[in-house]
Amino acid sequence: MRNARDRNRRRLRCACAALAACCAWSAHAQVSGSVGVVSDYRYRGYSLSGGDAAVQASVAHDWAQGAYAGLFASSAEYAGDSGAQWIPYAGWARRDEQGRSWDVGVRYSHFTADTSADYVELHAGLALRRVSLRVHYAPDYFGQVSNWYVEADGSVPFGDRVQWLWHAGVTRSGESDYRAAVYPASGGYSAQYATYVPDRTSEDRTRIDVRTGVSLVTRVCDVQLTWQHVDGDDATPYAAPFDARDRAGWVLGCMHRW
Question: From which domain of life does this come (predicted)?
């Protein structure tokens, strides 16, 4: 276990070092960033903050040649422990004369509360004027199983400051013996009250998540109010971050961008 944690720490340090090297590589980089708070940090439909508010920040560099790199950070809760999620990422993007763009990239998700959930994910994407499509693949998703994720995101403007936002995603996990968490009927969601049933193979390995809402640009921050939902059978075990009782919720966020 200690060796695995040491390897994860070395991977994270290497990723951060690579990001720092990229930032120092060119003085012509376009820098952007954000900082803000959300009422619930939902990742592909599921809460990674235990249903509580989360503080988030990001910084990114884009180069004229097409390369980009950045770092996203959020307070998070995993396996019942509070901590943070750090996601350094890098990639390459190109745009054609019609305004369409494509990109490929890689990112590394690191959880300070449980490094065994760390994983690497690759992606390829295509962005049109109002719609973007991406395909993600992680060989060891949340340290458990291989996973594919396909997503589509879009927006429709209503004036200069208001937009309608939408998102749809489909995730498909590989076959694996999964330790399903069974929660007592009288208790609420909490990892310390879960009873784990080993050696069960998930029958339903596909999940669909949707998100819709509005965004308002103000002088202070971009305000978003969205409703998010995940489908699925409550009785069927599924790879992390699965919670049979966590199906839908409203999320209010305020993000200052620069």
Answer: Bacteria
Distance CA 111, CA 119 (A): 9
Q: Residue 188 burial by CB count (10 A; 0-12/13-18/19+): exposed, middle or buried?
A: exposed
Question: Does the pLDDT value for residue 8 go beyond 60?
Answer: no
159: left (phi over 0), alpha (psi -120 to 50) or beta: left
Dist CA 54 CA 133 (whole Å):
27
Task: Count other Cβ atoms within 10 Å, centred on residue 5.
Answer: 13
Q: Tell me the C-alpha distance between 45 and 248, whole Å.
A: 7
Q: Are strands 195-201 and 206-217 parallel, antiparallel or unpaired?
A: unpaired
What's the predicted TM-score (pTM) here? 0.79
Q: What is the pLDDT of residue 238?
A: 55
Distance from C-alpha of 133 to C-alpha of 135, rounded to nearest angstrom: 7
pLDDT in tens, 28-83: 559 999 999 999 999 988 888 888 999 999 999 999 889 999 999 999 987 778 89
In the numeric block, the tokens 């690191």 are attached to: 110
Q: What is the pLDDT of residue 22?
A: 46
Q: Which of 132, 55, 71, 146 is nearest to 107 (CA)?
A: 71
188-217 pLDDT tens trace: 444 433 333 334 445 567 888 999 999 999
CA-to-CA distance for 117 and 119, rounded, in angstroms?
Answer: 6
Q: Which helix (DSSP H) or strand (DSSP E) does residue 9 occupy?
A: helix 2-25
CATH class for the region spanning 2-257: mainly beta
- In this structure, is the dihedral angle defined by the CA atoms of residues 54, 135, 18 and 22, taken in order, positive or negative? negative
